[in-house]
């Protein structure tokens, strides 16, 4: 049975409850209030644009009047949020509520004469698509991307610090050709930096062309104006890229592209989290105890890798939401339907779970230490991984005419496959090979810890 008493009103999403401190900055952009502030911004800038052109006989606003109007946006706060909420409760239409809110501000500022230019020739989507583009752009550039860059910087630091630290690789979960810790961290950094460049290259598109993208109302109101040029200037003046060909809605292709790229970044980070979790379980990476922290409710010795487990879960949720947005937003029935309206209200949730994962990975990376001693010990217990090196050298010796061995791969498979082979056995095996003295000397000197090729040098490609 459920508890008998009712709780006070509580946040339903953990992003607004337990995890709010980690994601709060997104709320300034991707919340309903952030969207409404952007809507007010677009409406006011459109008013200023029209009066600057003396449209319909209007007088250009003074610098002081423009500053007062723009101050409505910069001072937007709780009282404005509440006022818009009350207006929407009556209008049952969010953008119409914004229009009435702007009209009221015009009256307060003594600018009632231009009130009819508020939302002039606009459909709701003219305001919404620009507002979403502005808020998403600001959220990515000012909040999400700096946190993402912080994670990349940590991997670059770890790659440089451990560039020379040898580590046994595991392909298919089995001991394989050694690498270095730094090179593996460099792989993560390189992958993340590559997808970052794609995210940064996002085109944030905007349309401003009326009810079905035809400028019909604009032309009827004033046929002598080059409305596409006005539209382009206005959209680009907001810091967005103009989309000239749309239906009632901006087609959302840029959103699908962005969300797919962020989901891709999420999935790379998910791979990072699962790898580090595995390295912790193997003892290659240890967790630094945090004062007062409890790893297990019953086993005092444990330090659970909760940062990376939390990141995994949130990356999965974020990617699922972003993928859903990318798949659904590109479809709208003929000129317009409203499925995008509900879907886009989850943009903040999708980015919030990604941001929470970035926070956990950042904190997790700050609470680990690379156990080089354990890695060296593991290398010393897996001399059979040198089988690749030996058979490759034999092949080169055969080609050079310094060996008559017929099947070097089969020879090494017989020696090493399914067997633990130590240093003494391998040295004895090499000493008995039909190869040149110089090649034999190189192989005798080789150890699993030194068989890392150019791994350390590859870190410099970051």
TrEMBL record:
Q: In which pathway is this protein known to take part?
A: Purine metabolism; IMP biosynthesis via de novo pathway; 5-amino-1-(5-phospho-D-ribosyl)imidazole-4-carboxamide from 5-amino-1-(5-phospho-D-ribosyl)imidazole-4-carboxylate: step 2/2; Purine metabolism; AMP biosynthesis via de novo pathway; AMP from IMP: step 2/2
What terms describe the molecular function in GO for this protein? lyase activity
- Residue ranges of every copy of the Adenylosuccinate lyase PurB C-terminal domain listed in the record: 332-452
Superkingdom of this protein's organism: Bacteria
Ranges for domain Fumarate lyase N-terminal come to 64-311
The yes or no answer to whether the keyword Lipid metabolism is present is no
> Coiled coil located at which positions?
none
InterPro entries (alphabetical): Fumarase/histidase_N, Fumarate_lyase_CS, Fumarate_lyase_fam, Fumarate_lyase_N, L-Aspartase-like, PurB_bact, PurB_C
Question: May I ask which residue range the UniProt record assigns to the signal sequence?
Answer: none
Provide this UniProt record's keywords sorted from A to Z.
Answer: Lyase, Purine biosynthesis
Q: Kindly indicate whether the keyword Lyase belongs to this entry.
A: yes
A Pfam family cross-referenced in the UniProt record is ASL_C
Summarizing the function annotation, the protein's role is:
Catalyzes two reactions in de novo purine nucleotide biosynthesis. Catalyzes the breakdown of 5-aminoimidazole- (N-succinylocarboxamide) ribotide (SAICAR or 2-[5-amino-1-(5-phospho-beta-D-ribosyl)imidazole-4-carboxamido]succinate) to 5-aminoimidazole-4-carboxamide ribotide (AICAR or 5-amino-1-(5-phospho-beta-D-ribosyl)imidazole-4-carboxamide) and fumarate, and of adenylosuccinate (ADS or N(6)-(1,2-dicarboxyethyl)-AMP) to adenosine monophosphate (AMP) and fumarate.
**In its UniProt entry, what is this protein called?**
Adenylosuccinate lyase
The gene name on file is: purB
